[in-house]
Amino acid sequence: MQKFLNALPLLAIAGLIWFHFYQPDGDQPKLAKPPSQTESRRCQVVEGSIYDGDTFRVKCDNREQKIRLCGIDAPEAKQPLGIESRNYLRSLVAQAKGQVIVIEMDRDKYGRSVAEVLLESPSGEQSVQEEMLKAGMAYHYKQYSANCHNREAFDIAEEMGRSQQRGVWGFPNGGERPWDYRKQDKS
Description:
alpha+beta; 8 strands; 5 helices; 5-stranded mixed beta barrel; 187 residues; two-stranded antiparallel sheet
């Protein structure tokens, strides 16, 4: 009995560790992986799947998945520049012939892969997020960029677009943010 009582604290600790790390996926959100544990995959953007400036579908290893670009929020389709933002993303993907590099960071509450996405170009790899921000076709979504490895670069890219008054930055104060628009749209 004494051996059992001595082992009880160890069993309790092991139980807490198991409970914290091995809950089913639906019970606990996945945490972002540190850069050293993040895998990149070459994927093909599914034709016709770019409906807005921050979400699309890709096919990786014969598996299709929906991607939400990490750390940016593009205007909604019914907002000013919403269609232009979508079309700009389409043009970026078209320049890369639909080939992208997906670096999954997390999953959102809708089950989408939240990822940083790169395009290969003759001058090297290009961050889709940075290109959207520099063009003023998206905002840095700071409250959801903590898990993005390149969040500091997103600040710089957004400032470049703002300083040149590109895209949304041509409107007073950068126009209505998509997250504010969605709140009003739900009311």
